[in-house]
Amino acid sequence: MKKSNEVLDALKSVKLYNWFKEQYGSGSKTVERQVERYTRMVEEFISAYPDNDLIDIFASPGRVEVGGNHTDHNAGRVLAAAVNVDIIAAVSKNDSGVVRIKSGGFEEFSLDIRELSAKEDEKFTPVALVKGVFSRMKELGYRIGGLDACFSSTIPVAAGLSSSAAFEVLMVTILNHLYNGCKIDSVISARIAQYSENVFFGKPCGLMDQTTCAVGGFVTIDFQDFTKPIIKKVDFDFASSGYTMVIVDTGGHHADLNNDYTAIENEMKDTAREMGGKVLREFTIENVVNGVSSMRTAISDRAILRAYHYYRDDIRVVDQVKALEQDDFDTFLRLIIDSGYSSWMYCQNCYTSKDVEEQGLSIALMVSEYLLNGQGAWRVHGGGFAGTIQAFVPGDLLNKYTAEMEKIFGAGSCYPLMVRPAGASMIEL
After folding, report:
1. Alpha helices by DSSP H, 91-185
2. Is 225 one of the annotated active-site residues of the chain?
3. Staple 170 to which of 60, 95, 279, 325, CB 3.0 to 4.6 Å?
């Protein structure tokens, strides 16, 4: 830990300047904005906790899904990437056994680490996420302790960039460094964070979000063995591709869509059970196609179509990784488009059947096809039904693309992003 004045000086150093460029981009004002942001956060910490002058700085990125749409829960493969929106924290230990947290946009709160039980009225709150992390780490035998922290986030809420996962993983990373000698690896960190989100926060989720936030860069994950997912960083310099990844928020609300999300997993598993197993990874696409006539009498047509999507998107992840590793970005873009059409046609998660007149995602995909045809790629992003799409936009079309999309979905609905190399970590000052 460094004294607060030393931290403020370090933020202006050449070492941190280069780190900011690597993680956030090299635009003329990008580094300057990050230095100002980090400085404001440290100054807020000094003001909030004047008796605690030793500080460490931590950061955890948001994430995007790139390939493998709804494949993870059936033991499939995914491709994801950490991105250059993040949550950062100025943190110091305290000896009080109390966690005190200030975060821009949220009410300040504190909790006693001797009382870590889950409470129904705390679900879907930052308190629940913090409690969940501390509780799970204690259950697993790791050390926990009091701390003071100020947070700053640039991850848009409800834009599908996993702000909750980034926050959970950041909390694990903080406790790992402050109290556990950095012995907790990225897989365990992700599992602790997932537990917090599932059990305390009250949101069902797989492990992709937390793993990507923990690892950083492009990450491919194979969930064939849920207890030991195979995680591999993919070596590709996205910054040199000439493309920008754009997340478009179509403004749809995720309220009352939990049944739509869980139906995808359940229907895929219905297909697996009809073939005599538990998850689709146990079988092949040929098993599904050859069994269509008999399965239609036992399960829904949609379940069969969603199973077909699973197999096609699962193998597409392998091909996407190969394309990136071979620096074949044109093939990568083609596979992105193929994945998007498969989600639209077979997974059927671009709008809810409960309200077919509301199809913001479909409109965004239609306009993206028109604007980018032959020059980029587009697909549904994440769970679907409402929310966001993902586009890969060449530099000379970026301004036109974002302008046209914001005409439809409103100012600020487009989030241009780059892939961030580092996962959740303490920043070496």
Report:
1. 126-139, 163-179
2. no
3. 60
Instruction: Identify the active-site residue in 86, 209, 313, 338.
Output: 209
Cβ partners under 8 Å of residue 164, min gap 6? 129, 197, 201, 203
- Condensed to tens digits (0 to 9), the pLDDT of residues 343-384 reads 999 999 999 898 898 899 999 999 999 999 889 999 999 888
d(CA 41, CA 35): 10
pLDDT at 255 over 70: no
Which residue segments constitute the domains of the chain, with CATH numbers given?
Answer: 2-235+421-426 (3.30.230.10), 238-417 (3.30.70.890)
How many residues are there in the chain? Answer: 429
Q: Which of 255, 310, 353 is nearest to 362 (CA)?
A: 353
**With DSSP H G I counted as helix, E B as strand and the rest as coil, what are the percentages for the chain, rounded to 5?**
45, 20, 30
pTM confidence score: 0.91
14 vs 205 pLDDT, higher one:
14
| Residue at 382: amino acid letter | G
| Pair 70, 309: CB distance under 8 Å | yes
CB-CB neighbours of 355 under 10 Å: 12
Element (H or E) spanning 415, and its range? strand 414-417
Q: Could you tell me where the DSSP H helices lie in 87-160?
A: 126-139
46: tokens are 């000094």
Per-residue model confidence as pLDDT tens digits over 315-340 = 999 999 999 999 999 999 999 999 99
Residue pair 168/133 in contact (Cβ under 8 Å)? The answer is yes
d(CA 25, CA 18): 10
Q: Under a CB-based contact definition with an 8 Å cutoff, are residues 142 and 134 in contact? A: no
Closest residue by Cα to residue 337 from 414, 288, 408, 389: 389
Distance from C-alpha of 92 to C-alpha of 41, rounded to nearest angstrom: 13
Residue 184: pLDDT band (50, 70, 90) is: very high
